[in-house]
Amino acid sequence: MNSRNPILQITNVGKEYYGNRVLKDISFDLYPGEILGLVGENGAGKSTLMNILFGMPVIADTGGYEGTISINGTAVRFRTPFDALDAGIGMVHQEFSLIPGFTTTENILLNSESQKKNILDEVFGPRMDILDRPDMRRRALEAIGKLGIQLDPEMCVSEMPVGHKQFTEIAREIIRKNMKILVLDEPTAVLTESEASILLDGLKKLAGEGIGIIFISHRLQEVLDLTDKVVVLRDGLIAHEAPTAGLTIREIARRMVGRGFDSKEAEVRPSRATDETVLEVENLWVDMPGETVRDVSFSVRRGEIFGIGGLAGQGKLGIPNGIMGLMSAGGSVHFRDRNGVRRTAILNDPRSALEQGMAFVSEDRRGVGLLLDEPVDWNIVFTSMQIQGRFLKPIFGGLIKWRDEGAIRKTAWEYIHSLEIKCTSERQPVIELSGGNQQKICLAKAFTMKPEIMFVSEPTRGIDIGAKRLVLDTLRQYNQDYGTTIIMVSSELEELRSICDRIAVIDEGCVAGILPPGTEASEFGLLMTGVTARKTTQQQGAEQ
User: Fold this and answer.
1) 492, 296 contact by CB (below 8 A)
2) Which residue would you say has higher pLDDT here, 241 or 173?
3) Is 262 a residue whose pLDDT tops 50?
4) pLDDT score of 517 more than 50
5) How many domains is the chain built from?
6) Is residue 2 part of a domain?
7) 35-44, 48-57, 380-389, 524-533 — which is least confidently predicted?
8) CB 38 within 8 A of CB 46
9) How confident is the model over 202-230, as a mean pLDDT?
10) Residue 188 and residue 163: Cα distance in Å, rounded?
11) Are the beta carbons of 286 and 471 closer than 8 angstroms?
């Protein structure tokens, strides 16, 4: 640390939303050059605390907050993010806020562009200044260089893989000249292991320049590797604050959830997989930016939990998005319905996929999965109502169909309780919930469809360790109870190994191999890094 005086003091901060107390008497300090790890289960209050710090309008619009925030010893009360930026606070949110049609440089320099004068300035003044693009490129590359990553300064954001978008977000914050405090909300959730390692090294360099960093993450090993101090939030209170040295993952997890946490894999249960092939994918290609699928073929058995893994940008996310019609795709996809009739899936048509008995939990919960301004119950039942006509009751002899509010409320509360969704009521708008609870609602929406085949993409992304186990157990229990075939895409190999019957590894847009979950982790690693010499033998062994 570079100073004995705190750069940030949070003192007795509290906040209430809609009658629900979410923060209670929060106090801690951040020093220049210090990296503070802020951890806690979803709904513990992390996002609300950061919204207060960054002056998000939702705080002022809902009655403000109690307590005091001080920067360099001076009390502040931000009403907008611009106030926070002017005070030297930068924040990288969990959800991207980039302009898709702008380049890397344009996004990094947004609102702080380099300008140069031209002849028209003599008449019209500075308003006629033009962009100094060479200088903008230089400044953007300087910020990118601090992170130790290689980004194309002229690439359009809409064409970037998700990891590059995250680095662009961070570079946009650190380029500010008055940067004192940097807040990062789950910055590595969308990064590969190698990208995450580069980012952590870059953050250490920034801390060495005297910037105080608040690092929010559910990846506890990263918290231990990076931070100087850990603050654990639980139910709106500080459950623990201590130097990182000497802490263990188990200790942090216990403080987070208030109970013991078993890091071992979940108990292996009997598989519901049969010998009948329910899904056949042949020569599938998908044009998904950053996740291109070139030529993928595999088959899935009825009742199986089939895993799809691989490094970021290799195409694993493109597979469900292509089959479900959200991205341009080609090839052939066949499935057998409950009567054993073999049917051809219609690609490039999302409604057809849903009508044919498939459901999808997207990795992009805010952009694809949810109606953010609508309440919890409406989100849970909407797709089933629209596609299957459920939750509607006929009146006037069937001439008109009206929403069955009682059935909607009953179904919503079933999932609120079973998935432990933290909300004030079934009528609370989804946009007010934490990311983890939003993800649970995406699962509930898919379950309500009662699909024959369910694609689940990154189901635990941005979810804390307690909720993560709940989600995985829920998927497995749903498979056990209903025999639903589940195809799960995940960047977390150990999650796939704990729940799946077989796991396909995607490399460069193709299936590198299909392995049983008990295979040594090193074998999966070889496939992920392009070592596929034994692919045929491995695949045959997995299918025996």
Assistant:
1) no
2) 241
3) no
4) yes
5) 3
6) no
7) 524-533
8) yes
9) 91
10) 8
11) no
Residue 3 forms part of a structural domain: no
| pLDDT tens-digit map of 414-434 | 999 988 888 889 999 998 887
- Mean pLDDT computed over 338-356: 88
**In 3D, which of 439, 280, 445 has the Cα closest to residue 354?**
445
Same domain, 394 and 541: no
> Residue 307 forms beta bridges with which residues?
488, 503
Quick one: 284 and 342 in the same domain? yes
Bridging pattern class, strands 74-76 and 277-287: unpaired
* Beta carbons within 8 Å of 33's beta carbon, 6+ residues apart: 1, 2, 3, 207, 208, 209, 210, 211, 212
Q: Which two tokens stand for residue 158?
A: 């809409």
Q: What is the 3-state secondary structure (H, E, C) of 315-333?
A: CCCHHHHHHCCCCEEEEEE
The answer to pTM > 0.90 is no
- Residue 196's CATH number: 3.40.50.300
99-102-105 Cα angle (round to 5): 110
Token pair for 417 = 């309780």
Per the CB < 8 A criterion, the answer to whether 54 and 216 are in contact is no
The pLDDT-based confidence of 375 (bands split at 50, 70, 90) is: very high
* Structural domain harbouring 456: 264-357+451-544
| Helix (H) / strand (E) containing 469 | helix 465-482
Amino acid at 205: K
Other Cβ atoms within 10 Å of 450 Cβ, number:
15
